[in-house]
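Hi, here's the filled form for the chain we discussed.

Project: internal
Contact: R.S.
Residues: 474
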Amino acid sequence: MAYKDLRQFLELLENEDQLIRIKEQVMPEPDLSAIGKAAPDMENGPAVMVENIKGYNNSVVLNVHGSWQNHALMLGLPKNTPIKEQFFELDKKWSSYPIKPVWVENAPIKEVKITKDINLFDILPLFRVNKFDGGFYLSKALTVSRDPEFPDDFQKQNVGTYRLQVKGKDLLGIQPLPFHDIAIHLKKAEERNEPLPVAICIGNDPIINLMASTPIEYAQSEYEFAGALKGEPIELTKSEHGNLDIPARSEIVLEGYILPRSRKVEGPFGEFPGSYSGARLQPEIKIHTVTYRSNPIFENLYIGKPWTEVDYLVALNTSLSLYKQVKRDFPEVVAINAMYTHGIGVIISTKSRFGGYGKAVAMRLLSTPHGMPYSKIVIVVDETVDPFNLEQVMWAITTRVRADKDVVLIPNAPGMLLDPSSEPPGMHTKLIIDATTPVAPDTSRDINMLDVPEKSDYWFEYLKNLIKNSKENK
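And the returned structure, exactly as it came back:
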């Protein structure tokens, strides 16, 4: 592709009239979060570079992923490519997995290094994403960690996006939910009463950020998927400590470790369902090293009531991951739209092989690693209905659904902890709406009861006597 890192992608956006620069001075609060909220509401959803922030020397970029135009350019497509075409282009690129990364020396991320007197409040232009957040948050940083049981297994290294609360000059809070890969790493480290090394990378190639927010299998590499989507290897370098692989061209990297068996209050935080999550006891990260590029660009995103940048960031990658997993077992599936609230709402388009097929497809989605905790409402439509066209989907619901036959409720199922409707938190009643055209069941068979074969009683006694005589002759 025509870019290798965030800086080059911003140049591409600017050339395509998808970047706005704000040169006049703004306040960290409330201006930065307000800009992050306003940008995706614009017709073309441009990225915004804020160059003059009171009290700070470095720039902040917001809304890098915050429109379908930016999303298309990230994939190397014309900026006005329709959503459905972007989905299938993503599918085509996905099939090139894996493209292995390359490791480079003298990486740009190593231009400046700090190991003493670290003060994140001086280094980062921090701001609250929403007014009543419990503190400043890094909402678009990716966190790298390794499986302590398999420290040399590159495939089991995780690159994920988790919310990070700045709690002190060199201290962060992190929320690793039980179904996150980093929670597996942390559990293993805490069983050994050992710290878990992590590297927090800010300002990355947008494809790497996309993959860090994509639900893939535990032993699959986000970096190798990112290479597949770009059509070329991702450049990595080694962290200063902890044997972690980090993007060579990130803007800022915070290295540290999760303190074992320690939990402190984190939150509240305005989350992607459009509501605040509560304050909970969460692990903390101690930062011991910071590296960054000269004049680093700080990247963050606004999260709130959809649609915001995060909804564009996790829309098609979540859809495609679920599509790949379900289609593997149900080849009739045409497409899956899981763009709504990170897959809490899902629309599946499929051809029905036999009666009740739509419900079976929905149940398979609810058993996937992402669908199990996240997906709450699953709508299934015919293969002729575009799941990305809500007018067509509503037509299917209004003309195909009989509530007594086509609606399924699954109570006491796993749910998304951050969904304000889950009760108790982390539990849901799942809803399946089968809006496919009914397919007749196979009624061609005759149901006639079988007769017991003649002489069965005779042969039962005969075989019993054979066994008896065999035992007596031994």
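Let me know if anything looks off before we file it.
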